[in-house]
Amino acid sequence: KIKTTGPYMFELVDCDFSKCSTPATQGYITQVKQPVTLSFSSYEKKLDEPGELMLSDFAKFDRPPLLHLGFKALAKYRSDNGGSYPAPGDATAAQAVVDIAKAMDTDGLLGDNETAQQTVRRLASGACAILSPMCASLGGIVGQEVLKGCSAKFTPIQGFLYFDAVECLPDEILPVEEVASSGTSRYDSQIAVFGKEIQQKIMNLNYFLVGAGAIGCEMLKNWALMGVGCGPNGHVYITDMDRIEKSNLSRQFLFRNTDINSFKSATAANAAKAMNADLNITAYQEKVGAETEHLFGDDFYDKLSGVCTALDNVEARLYVDQKCLFYRLPMLESGTLGTKGNTQIVVPHMTENYGATRDPPEKSIPVCTLKNFPNQIQHTLQWARDYFEGIFKQSAEDANSYLNGELSSASEQQNTKLDTYRSIKMTLLDERPVHFEDCVVWARLKFEDLFNKQIRQLLHNFPEDQVTSSGTKFWSGSKRCPKALLFDLDSKCGDAEMKNHLDFIVAAANLRANLYGIKGRTDEEYFRQVLDNVIVPEFTPANGVKIAANESEAKQQNDEAPGDNIDDECDEIIAQLPKASELAGFKVNPIEFDKDVDEHMLFVTACSNLRALNYWIPTEDTHRSRAIAGRIIPAIATTTALVTGLVCLDLYKVIGSARKELTLDMFKNAFINLAIPFMTLSEPTPPEKTKCILKGKEWNWTAWDSLDLELGDITLKELMDHFATEYNLDISMLSHGVSILYSFFANKKKVEERKKMKMSEVVTSITKKEFPPNQLFIILELIANDLDTDDEVELPYVKFRFR
After folding, report:
1. Catalytic residue among 168, 324, 368, 607
2. What's the pLDDT tens digit per position in 734-750?
3. Is the previous residue joined to 677 through a cis bond, with omega within 30 degrees of 0?
4. Domains of the chain and any CATH numbers
5. Residue 368 is a catalytic residue
6. pTM above 0.85, yes or no
């Protein structure tokens, strides 16, 4: 029994520790959630007595009871009218629903409240419509509730959940001719809610979808059903550099088994095109970044209506965010983590941009923890992955560089030069196998080195009973005292129930064979036969071996200058290596780690588990190890459907609903957790303003603002004169990126020469780089003073169009 005594402390209640001879100083605590019995009322009873209703938007705390009343009134209307909903735009029918609601209203929710009555009218007017984004949002919630019922996992919703996006709707019910159904259009439902004018806007949108993973697939499906980019002037552009992997299929539903190894973007585009043949879509297989600005440049963004991110890392989001800021494009952002999800809507000049606020960077695992003092399975898996990269990829690439006569740049770094040449020597000479049996022997000796000898050397340096200078035990806290493993083919770990000793040998031997193009095998009897004859050298601990006990010591050792004889040792190794000409045609095959290749994961899992056994860390099976080592972000279809649906509902607002002026509070950012369940919508934060006095008037500018100049490719002098006459500013410094184009303290002769040059010529002459043909703008930063007051004026950047 547990008694919580603080945020990070608890007590064990009713436990007798009187017979314990020594106190416990290390261990693992596992939270075991206790089952809870939940009871529910009947649907009939809840319909009349709904009780407390779950909130989805805390700004609408009075909305759920009103919607409950509205849906009851709508059901009564259907019952009285042969099962039919009110026709779109039929004000009389909508008012009839309001009248029914008033008759049912025992709590006085409607009364003379025109806003509440208008909400019911809107519900009635659009009742017959089926909108893809709303189906996706509610479908995600319902799907998770079904899973809860099947699995008894997570907390179900108690009673009713009402969700509305009334901010999307026009203030007044649209006239019948604007929303009338054609009976032949697949977009009749959307037209019934938003009208024909908005549907045309949707179809003529030009949107850029960055990413074709779980969110990207779901978003593209929604867009195909909504008609985004399906008009004569509309287009969808999608890019993703990744190929489809087996593990994607469970959550990226546009892909099938036959699509494995195909590009995600092209496959998703084809699947969406199959849903809506009118979709105009172009798929790219490029990363969005500085290196692809020749493709995604000024001319590309200039034709877009907005950008939607479906990315899995913050760095890429920040890059796209800067592009949206510069081109003043809306950015639709969302993300999921298991049952958790969030959306952020970025609207030019109205909301802050994505990068305005950000989470602190994720902490990396200290090097000394990975090398010598792991205490979590994440540490051992990272170590195993790093070892895989070094032994099966980097060593092969270094050897090939030697054979090609061009060593990698790492080999020229003095700190790693000797290690690189030693690795090449082992790969091409000392440990080069001829038969598969040699690979098995190599794997057995690696086992002994990694999980026995290195551990015994560590314990030689830091014995189990060692104490620090302060008198505390060295092996305490996060430092777990390791044990050396004795090789046993029949050994099986208790947690993951895997034969890690055998698995390591089989996987390592086969991967080693792949490096050299040798055919491998996996039959256990063969391995037992070969391993019986392997002679393992005795271990003798070495003196004088330095092992860093903490991160500062590791940094100090890394910073220490290599010995003077490094080059001599390297020359000695090179002299022993076979000449590249002697190995003409020979090549080692580097192996890139792939979490979806079972052989790769078998090695990493076994390697990680063996190291975990060294340090008394609970082991994990291949499935769980794949998720950790492959850095798979948990994604489930329910959360993905919900967040993409919410984003598309806000896309309606970004487009601009008919007969409605949108304000900041109309947009909604969402934070959800389907497990608890929890859902809250909040209005975005407005952009931060900077105050300055320009031309005698106060100007509060934000990150969305810039000084836009479309004067053609004028000279530097003409630019400075323009600022003096137009803005009453004297430029004291002008820069482009890291290059200073003009400064008041620069060489006078050089300044006069530059003043006569066109701005594009000034930039290219200093940066020594030509502008790409698709670049239209030059970004300029300036320091300027008011000509009247001589005060420095804080200004945004200058967006100078030279083409």
Report:
1. 368
2. 999 889 999 988 888 99
3. yes
4. 367-465+476-629 (1.10.10.2660), 692-801 (3.10.290.60)
5. yes
6. no
